Amino acid sequence: MGRLDNKVAIVTGGAGGIGRATVLAFAREGARVIVVDLRAEAAEAVADEVRATGGEAIAIAADVSQEGDIRAVVDGAIAAYGTVDVVFNNAGIIRRTTAVDTTVDEWDLVFGVNVRSIFLMCKHIVPIMEKNGGGSIVNTGSGWGLKGGGTAISYCASKGAVVNMTRALAIDHGAAGIRVNSVNPGDVNTGMLRDEARQLSQDADAFLAEAADRPLGRMGQPEEVAAAVVWLASDDSSYVTGSALVVDGGGIA
Question: Which DSSP letter does residue 83 get?
Fold first, then answer.
């Protein structure tokens, strides 16, 4: 028996990194998964991975910052599986700039993907979960949503918003049996981390080595964050809501 048997789960940003690892972990625990990503072919490839191991998954391409696309994701999940029990709001982007260097369009883009998408998903998912008698929502924050970071003002601000929005959602919807938590990774071995090196015009190997400078002496792996998300999504964390779970190898300790 898996911890998510008979559950239906949506994962945004599901085609790579932490999202892909969580899709696969959810499927191993028995969930039927909706893989959501802006990249249609990549989302379908992850869904194929699930199906190749005997699991159930569908892929939906979406720009999660747009309400029409969020509606299409929710409608697609209902059409395929009849309900939604778990949502992992994981889609996110980073721009490594200061306030002086950040354009208004970049600021709006980061907040659209990192913050507005969670608001929109919850707006359309919470009524479904209320009818079901409950559910679990997990939002991807960051260590930099709990403390400051350099040359990433829009990202830090957006992830701080995610952490506190998660708390507000937990307060508003706890009586309906809906638990809402954030998972807050540190540096994780993903394409996004390598893209940060490119944005900062730094050598990727040196950048990744610096990312390992934390008490555990290494960067994280996507599967380690996915394991935390599975726990938050499952009944193993049945009395946990409004929390900000840090998974960062001690980086902000």
Answer: -
Q: Whole-model pTM?
A: 0.98
In a domain, 2, yes or no: no
Is 81 labeled as catalytic in the residue annotation? no
Which is the catalytic residue, given 144, 153, 155, 211? Answer: 155
The residue written with tokens 């946990």 in the block is 240
Return per-residue pLDDT of the chain as tens, 253 residues: 899 999 999 999 999 999 999 999 999 999 999 999 999 999 999 999 999 999 999 999 999 999 999 999 999 999 999 999 999 999 999 999 999 999 999 999 999 999 999 999 999 999 999 999 999 999 999 999 999 999 999 999 999 999 999 999 999 999 999 999 999 999 999 999 999 999 999 999 999 999 999 999 999 999 999 999 999 999 999 999 999 999 999 999 9
CATH of residue 136: 3.40.50.720
Q: CA 229, CA 19: separation in Å to the nearest integer?
A: 10
Question: What's the domain range around 217?
Answer: 8-247
Structural domains in the chain (count) = 1
Tokens 């599975």, residue? Answer: 230
- Alpha helix positions (H), 116-244: 117-132, 153-173, 191-199, 204-211, 222-233
Residue 252 lies in a domain: no
Check residue 187 and report its DSSP letter.
Answer: S
